[in-house]
Amino acid sequence: MSFRLTYATMYNPPEAMHERFEAAMTRVEAKAGARHPLFIDGADCDAAHYVERHAPFDHALRLGSFALADASDAHAAMSAARAAYPAWRATPVAERARLIRRVGEIMEERVYDIAAALTLEVGKNRMEALGEAQETVDFFRHYADDFESHAGYTNVLPDDPMDGVASHNASVMRPYGVWVVIAPFNFPLALAGGPAAAALVTGNTVVLKGASDTPWAGRLLADCIRDAGLPPGVFNYLSGAGREVGEALVRHPHTAGITFTGSVPVGRQLMQQMTGGDYPRPCIAEMGGKNPCIVTEHADLNRAASGIVRSAFGMGGQKCSALSRLYVHEQVADALIERMRAQIDAIRVGDPRRREHWLGPVVNAAAYANYRQYADALRSGGARLISGGAQLGEGHAAEPALAQGYYVEPLLAEAPLSHPLWQQEMFVPILMLHRYQDREEAMRLANDSPMGLTAGFFGSEDEVPWFHDHIEAGVTYANRPQGATTGAWPGYQPFGGWKGSGSTGKAIASFYYLAQYLREQSRTVVE
Fold first, then answer.
1. Of the listed 286, 409, 425, 463, which one is catalytic?
2. How far is CA 300 from CA 4, 295, 314, 480, 497, in A?
3. d(Cα 113, Cα 111) in Å, to the nearest integer?
4. Average pLDDT in the 322-341 region?
5. Which pLDDT tens digit goes with each residue over 102-128?
6. Annotated catalytic residue within 320, 409, 425, 463
7. In whole angstroms, what separates CA 227 from the centre of its chain?
8. Is 283 among the residues known to form the active site?
9. Spatial distance between the Cα atoms of 276 and 269, rounded to a whole number of angstroms
10. Which of 169, 207, 375, 431 is buried deepest, with most CB atoms within 10 A?
11. Is 414 part of the annotated catalytic residue set?
């Protein structure tokens, strides 16, 4: 099949894609309920405790029994990674790159089965799940190619200008050591596999901790890495509570660097911890977004409505790049709302395994309760709920098919600017709208956030440079119906935030990303 999976291309896929996904779902469901150990020092590793996981869309569907790591498991993984580091660091660049590409090849062979597991575990629809699985494949390929293209970041410099003396100079980038990756629930494969690939190809060894809600994805990644033939200890996988396992990893004396994706409070805490101790250690933190979109009176409203609805409600708003703040010129607000309501009304909510369902559940009981809390806060805070606002699943289901899941309606609300939810990342399918009078006001409001991850714009061609010159965000999209604020892909759109959304100012899969996993050594040798 020549069809290329990316987030931007999967809105009109060939029939063969659906057939392959459904066959994979049959295979994966037949294996559900298995026991999944940790992966340490090249081998499966039992834990003292296991936890049963069930699908967020059907609490009766048992996914399996997953190991819960503790501090002793964290220490074992760190020790294995530390022991494997010297040999892995010394492995030639071409061989490391070959092994990393091999991981991607194996993952691509399994991409439909992995996507089916992501649908079961996270509740993503098939398009989102396939996109994440293929995105992870592309991370492994992209970083291998990028590292080789830089010749391992070794640069020969001019000799010192001294007569009668040959003094040779070079700049050499070297890995740090054991790198810890802490992944979130919403992209448990891509935001584990991407940083792991970057750390590994640059010569670091890795200990990955997956999110408590999504231990299966990390285990599937570990299987691909194992089967690619990476040496024991080079990659290790743990699942468990952040308070115990995450803390043990962060505080471990072998930890040389961390990549974290998650909330602002946890990311800031990790950054502070990594600057303490005997010396500061690198912390690459991506910490969420409160992403705006501006629609001017010159916008193509059909295009805008499509991009807005996809970015605000795709995957239930459970993306750090999800659109949550919409600023629309007052002259076109009613017309845009009409188009958006039509698209929202057409969204089918239900079992994400089924082709016709675009929106599955939110991930857990806490997110389900949060949705109710936010909807109530909007109502009581003077907002007008244009669409949505109801819980559809557990405890509220009018349809028996929804009774066992955490289903909610996509919510569009026109809210006063004084409402506190304009400043809070909600991570559920809620979009807030404001009508503005002039575009300078819209830009001021769009930038009125301590976060600056993604931003969208719909307007005339000659307004786009103004948007780019003034918006405070690391990832920008102009006039994009495939997604107003979402849809970055390795090799096409680097992904990273400004302000409180990121710690480094460098984006995932960018020209500058891999260098963050390396430290520079200046070498002078006199003959």
1. 286
2. 27, 9, 21, 10, 27
3. 6
4. 98
5. 999 999 999 999 999 999 999 999 999
6. 320
7. 24
8. no
9. 11
10. 207
11. no
